[in-house]
Structure prediction request, 65 residues.
Amino acid sequence: MPAMILTLPPYLLHTSISILNTRFNRSAQLSKDYLEAVKILEEVKPKRIVSNNTGIAYKAVEMGI
Prediction:
């Protein structure tokens, strides 16, 4: 399968790069927030939690919370 070559006019390329940077930064921040939440769960070891975040809820179940 040949590689795809993407050619965009400069104004669209700049916009595309800005969107990708924003998404990457948001993703990186979410990863940091998740890791911090897991650290808190490990340190505090609560009996139960209420969370609207399925990743945190899943981790809590894994930890026996």
User: Anything to note?
Assistant: The helical segments are 10-44, 54-62. The mean pLDDT is 76. Residues 42 and 63 are 8 Å apart (CA to CA). The longest helix spans residues 10-44.
